Amino acid sequence: MDYKLYHLDSGLRVLTVPMPGVESATLTIWVKTGSRNEEEKVSGISHFLEHMVFKGSIKRPTAKEISSAVDSIGGEFNAATSKDWTNFYIKAGVSNLETAFDVLSDMVLHPLLKEDEIEREKGTIIQEIAMYEDTPMVKIGEVFENLTFAGNSLSKDTAGTTKSVKRITKSDFERYRKRHYYPENMLVSVAGGVAETEVLKLVKKYFGEISHPPGEIRKHLAGVSFQTRQTKPQVKLKTKKEEQAHFILGFLADGRNYEGRYAQGLLSAILGGGMSSRLWIEVRERRGLAYAVKTSIERYLDTGYLGTYAGVDPQKVDEAISVILDQTYCIISGKYPITKKELKDFKEFLKGHLALALEETKDVSAFFSDQVLFMDKILTPEEIFRKVDGVTLDEVTFEAKRLFIPSRLNLAVIGNYNNKGKFEKLLK
């Protein structure tokens, strides 16, 4: 699988990923900004703006007109906001690609941002925040990052708070767009059964008007780099009456461009990445402590973490945490060393999962676009397969010894507990 990356005179980047034989295409507009780039007083504005783009544009002044235009071509459209990027996409048949360009460019470049719509949407977002508060399986990730990145903008919830959302105004949106929605900070990607020449023609037609805001306004408010001051294990407890206890136990890791990221990925997979992983077998199959247990890695440009999530019976949370710590620390003590067979099997696991994901145009777009936005070098899937194959047992063990130490350890818990002292004792 290959790609082409173009830089227009305006500074806008254009990514094309042809997928011969595929009858659909996903058009995505990426903006390299998210909640870590926000000023405190307008926390959540990236996510709020994502919502407002769907509420009306110059050509289609209402939400219904926008959705009807996409429905009329049988398309799918949505958007997402993270800590460091925002995206908007339409997936449609290749014969309807120009309509997708017309609709999406108008939405993103010319949102009306009507004041009555802003006030109305505040209620929707406040309810979304409440929904996540009532969904501990989702909320636990935010609680963990509140703890792990405390004092840095990465610790903020992407949706903001009820208080910050209520005070966002139209002028805040306009100022935010000037600061972040400019050509060099944006990427247009198209993946699917497309011709590069046709994509470039459409980009120039629908995105050729993007201009540069004044220099003094166009300051990219990059998030302050994260510098940890952690010297010992930390615990954050969110007391909530639930039938289950939800927790993430994780270790500070490294950013997107870290050289040893493939070894760390294999370490994560071996520990809790699949149904044959160590934690799945030990926590779920042998002990019946959890229905869901999974280890994964979250990366940002400058930092990241390797964390294990589990949802357990509140009476068995101590045992579950102890088992996970035992399985983790005993990799480096030599009690449960990683074997050559495990390493070989999980190399195939990682490669297979990536190959399956890249059958979908939306995922292909995300795979390459994330690299364009944040990585020092863009790798094709085949190049990543070779990187994974090249990881040695010594490299995985080295990463385990680097990461699995008390000064990198954090535990976030949501459950019906009143004293986090019991959890602090477990981590000792």
What does this structure look like?
This protein is of the alpha+beta class and 428 residues long. The chain has two domains: 4-207, Cytochrome Bc1 Complex, Chain A, domain 1 (2-Layer Sandwich), CATH 3.30.830.10; 234-427, Metalloenzyme, LuxS/M16 peptidase-like (Cytochrome Bc1 Complex, Chain A, domain 1, 2-Layer Sandwich), CATH 3.30.830.10. The chain has 16 helices and eleven strands. The chain has helices at 45-52, 63-71, 97-109, 115-133, 136-148, 162-166, 170-180, 196-207, 261-272, 278-286, 317-333, 340-357, 361-374, 381-389, 393-403, 421-427, and strands spanning 4-7, 13-18, 24-31, 76-81, 86-93, 186-192, 234-239, 245-253, 290-299, 304-312, 409-415. The strands form two sheets. Strands 1-2-6-3-5-4 form a six-stranded mixed sheet, with helices on both faces. Strands 7-11-8-10-9 form a five-stranded mixed sheet, with helices on both faces. Strand 9 and strand 10 (304-312) form a beta hairpin. Helix 9 packs across helix 15 (393-403), helix 11 packs parallel to helix 16 (421-427) and helix 12 (340-357) runs antiparallel to helix 14 (381-389). It is globular. The model has no long low-confidence stretch (mean pLDDT 96).
Tell me the layout of helices and strands.
Elements: E1 4-7, E2 13-18, E3 24-31, H1 45-52, H2 63-71, E4 76-81, E5 86-93, H3 97-109, H4 115-133, H5 136-148, H6 162-166, H7 170-180, E6 186-192, H8 196-207, E7 234-239, E8 245-253, H9 261-272, H10 278-286, E9 290-299, E10 304-312, H11 317-333, H12 340-357, H13 361-374, H14 381-389, H15 393-403, E11 409-415, H16 421-427
